[in-house]
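Slide 14.
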Amino acid sequence: MKIQAHAESHVVELDDGSRWQIFPGDLAITLSWKPETTLHLEPSRDRVTSHVLVNATDRSRVRVIAATETWPAGDVKDALKDG
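Slide 15: predicted structure.
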């Protein structure tokens, strides 16, 4: 999948029409994304996120949830504290 839009730093829209919120601790990873970046969506085993987006070029991963969902505040705080 390719990036359709990434106007908001924390939300990415893919060319399949899906929209994903990027985990706050992973935003820096997305700075190198370009419109031609190929991403793969995979299920996550993380308690905070439902999926991960994997950059096909460098295999970097960002945790995501559907753009319509809300982050579980306590879990996010714990995950950011733990690194």
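Speaker note: The first strand starts at residue 3 and ends at 5.
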